[in-house]
Amino acid sequence: MFGFLSTEMAAVGLTEWLGYAAAALVFATFSVKTMVPLRVIAIASNVLFLLYGYLHPAYPVLILHATLLPLNIFRLHQMLSLVRETKESHEDDLDMNWIRPFTTTGVMTPGQVLFRKGDPANAIIFVMSGSLRIPELGITIPPGEVIGELGMLSPDRVRTQSAVCVDGGQILTITYDQVRQLFFQNPKFGYYFMQLSARRLFENMKRMQAELETLRGHSAADGLSPAEP
């Protein structure tokens, strides 16, 4: 009889310790600043709460964490995929396919104006197929390119150029609010976004330098031309 009681007390003690450990992990999630460690700790907490709910027994706790466990596993898989694809995108010259789960898919038709100069800027557009033209710059945006990312950094949040569809195709749109969430949730994405913005800024600087050199060449040629009698 005493052996049975000691075994029962040991089981109760183990169950209580599982509950305390699970609660400590829940507390730990509030001190984590990034999403991947948070999900890992949450999964560990779910497992301990499942054991606690089964051994206690506490069926509401068991049902709750049986539901939360696959959700946390799915979210962890999603974030790890984001990190992996971000790294691959960096190594493979910014392939944009990895961001598709976080975007809205749309279709553009030839002649369609996606936005005009001066319109409010609230989203980034990824050109998956087809092409766009920026009339103010006279350049074409081919598949795989991005437009609208600099609007997020602009103080007045307006479009600085227009975008017109040349060849119909598919686009992906992600709002600036979604970009901010990904930016703060995952440092890898933050680095990716800064790299993307920096690349566009350098492209714009090169274009401006080329235009300045052309203007200087024209000015020099005009200055060397013979004067009118």
Description:
The protein is α+β, with helices and mostly antiparallel strands and 229 residues long. The protein folds into two domains: 2-91, no CATH class; 97-219, Jelly Rolls. The chain is built from five helices and eight strands; from the N terminus they run H-H-H-E-E-E-E-E-E-E-E-H-H. The chain has helices spanning 2-29, 35-55, 59-91, 176-185, 187-224, and strands at residues 104-108, 113-115, 123-127, 131-134, 139-141, 146-147, 163-167, 169-175. The strands form two sheets. Strands 1-8-3-6 form a four-stranded antiparallel beta sheet. Strand 4 and strand 5 (139-141) form a beta hairpin. Helix 1 runs antiparallel to helix 2, helix 2 (35-55) runs antiparallel to helix 3 and helix 4 packs across helix 5 (187-224). The radius of gyration is 28 Å and the shape is elongated. Residues 1-5 and 224-229 have low confidence and may be disordered.
Brief account:
The protein is of the alpha+beta class and 229 residues long. It has five helices and eight strands, in the order αααββββββββαα.
Briefly note the structural class of the backbone: alpha+beta
What do we call the CATH topology of the largest domain? Jelly Rolls
**CATH superfamily placement of the largest domain:** Jelly Rolls
Q: Helical amount among residues, as a percent range?
A: 55-70%
Q: Describe the global form.
A: elongated
Question: How would you summarize the topology of this molecule?
Answer:
Blueprint: H1 2-29, H2 35-55, H3 59-91, E1 104-108, E2 113-115, E3 123-127, E4 131-134, E5 139-141, E6 146-147, E7 163-167, E8 169-175, H4 176-185, H5 187-224
Antiparallel strand pairs: 1-8, 2-7, 3-6, 3-8, 4-5, 4-7
Helix pairs in contact: 1-2, 2-3, 4-5
